[in-house]
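Readers of this paper often ask what the protein records in our data store actually look like. Such a record has a labelled line for the sequence and another for the backbone structure tokens. The tokens are whole numbers drawn from a learned vocabulary of local backbone shapes. We quote a single record here, exactly as it is kept in our systems:
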Amino acid sequence: MSVDAIVEVLKAIADPTRFQILYAVSSQEHGVGQLADKLGAHVAAISQHLAKLRAAGLVTSRRDGTRIYYRAANPHVAALLAEAGLLTGYVTGTIDPPEPPAVVEQQVSRPVWVLNLGAIRPAQT
């Protein structure tokens, strides 16, 4: 996985409307009209944003007759949005960051990634 690929995913999220769409579909499925009503935007604009999110692999869709419903592609989307919110709170000072632990002796339950000159790869264990 390249750093460029990661940046493309972050760019897809880095729009206020797309962020709000992702937030909405990370908890439940929504149709385009529902999202347009929820965000106070035109259906055509929501459809364009959804196309960008779908191209980035962040949302999936299913058809039910003439309607198309969207949801987050996987649970990591909601986790990324939550982490972005926490980090923003820490950076802006609206949330106090937690105290660092005195000793870190935890088993890491998620993949560890290593950034290596333009590419990211799983850490070897």
